[in-house]
Design a protein that fits this description.
Length: about 200
């Protein structure tokens, strides 16, 4: 085989390999190769309107657990999500849902005042625990209420991770917080921005 023909064969091989399926993006997020469908749910937003699975469809959505009395993780994470969505807004439309896991204290009016401080376009949902807990667990997140029924000053534990739901209404990834001794567990803003871009680019093409 002449050198010229050999070069043609090698070029064709590289072309064929280049046309193969793309590899999933390399990210620091927990990425689901097969997205996990979110089971049917009914919650209430900050305007007193009912929200269901249909509200998750058509856009990428980031969901984060919290409660309006949260002293650190919640406001700090929402501030980061505000910056992330702002930075990516020229290229991607990304919704953010703040899921209050403290429905006893966080009524619709309180959730609205809270979320409007960060971004009035964000959605702040909640529901009775019997509806809320299965929804949260389906997102791959958890929470626990330490309420003895005798005081309004009870504590709430919840995941500091952020779940990404794709336009089909299915869980596509979970962004984990960074843990360091003596520090509040928080997502890495720059890292998440890069990972989110890679994931949306990959699954949108």
């Amino acid at each position: 085989m002449s050198q010229f023909k050999l070069l043609i064969v090698i070029s064709l091989i590289f072309m064929v390999l280049g046309c193969g399926p793309k590899s999933p993006p390399q990210t620091n997020a927990l990425l689901y190769q097969e997205a996990k469908i979110v089971k049917p749910f009914v919650l209430q937003d900050q305007n007193g309107q009912q929200v269901t699975n249909q509200n998750l469809k058509g856009n990428w959505t980031l969901l984060f657990l919290g409660y309006t009395s949260c002293p650190d993780i919640c406001p700090m994470t929402l501030a980061k999500l505000t910056q992330i969505t702002k930075e990516l807004s020229p290229n991607f439309a990304i919704n953010v849902w703040f899921v209050s896991v403290d429905p006893k204290r966080d009524n619709a009016e309180k959730r609205k005042l809270y979320i409007d401080y960060f971004n009035p376009d964000f959605t702040a949902v909640s529901a009775e625990h019997k509806y809320l807990f299965p929804f949260v667990r389906n997102l791959g997140l958890v929470y626990a209420i330490h309420d003895d029924g005798e005081s309004e000053n009870y504590t709430v534990d919840h995941s500091a991770s952020v779940t990404l739901v794709d336009p089909n209404g299915a869980v596509r990834a979970i962004f984990k917080p960074e843990f360091a001794k003596g520090k509040v567990p928080l997502i890495n803003q720059s890292e998440m921005t890069q990972d989110l871009t890679s994931i949306i680019d990959y699954y949108s093409n």
